[in-house]
């Protein structure tokens, strides 16, 4: 069974810093790897989706990388802003299911 | 385009009571998912529908949980009777295709507290 782990569980950074969130998965037979954002009391918003054949995806200040062989993905956030404060979840996609990590709670301090 | 709608947003019940959640997916989306997210954990898939048929319900505790999607649109998730460990946020998501590789759009969730 796929297991997804995210480290750290929580992270606080001052505004303007660049930061990296980590995600690891045990089964490399994935279709894609997704990063989501979850704000308190709200659902999940898809940020980036990396297909299994890709190495990275970029959207604005966000860059996600995927290394299937090592079972790792990273989400890089450049020039962090207070509005980036949220919980970030990664999910590894199997044949019929998304396997989510436990998330990293990010706080960007003004 | 309207997003995935869920109601109620919050529900507090006592253990052994029954509760039902409702989800209205994005118009035209064939696939609907129910997830359970316990505090501090990632969402866990409970059931997946394609139109009004069940694709995957392997993680649904069938002794107390049931779900239906009549007419392939709205869906309801029921818990009867509820246990303390059912306290969680129940998320509904929909996608236009049947494959889990396609983007899923999530509703705001229903926060259930079982006392």
Structure description:
The complex is a heterodimer of chains A (110) and B (115). Helix content of chain A is 0%, strand content 58%. Chain A has 110 residues and is mainly beta. In chain A, strand 7 and strand 8 form a beta hairpin. Chain B has 115 residues and is mostly beta strands. In chain B, 0% of the residues lie in helices and 48% in strands. Chain B has no helices and eleven strands. Classes of the chains: A mainly beta (110), B mainly beta (115).
Brief rundown of the structure:
The complex is a heterodimer of chains A (110) and B (115). Chain A is mainly β and 110 residues long.
Keywords for this entry:
heterodimer; A: 110 residues; mainly beta; six-stranded mixed β-sheet; 11 strands; globular; B: 115 residues; seven-stranded mixed β-sheet; four-stranded antiparallel β-sheet
Q: Rg of chain A from C-alpha positions?
A: 13 Å
What's the number of extended β-strand segments of chain A? 11
H-E string of chain B: EEEEEEEEEEE
Largest sheet of chain B: 7 strands, mixed
Shape call of chain B:
globular
Class computed from helices, strands and strand pairing of chain B = mainly beta
Strand content of chain A: over 45%
Helix content of chain B: under 10%
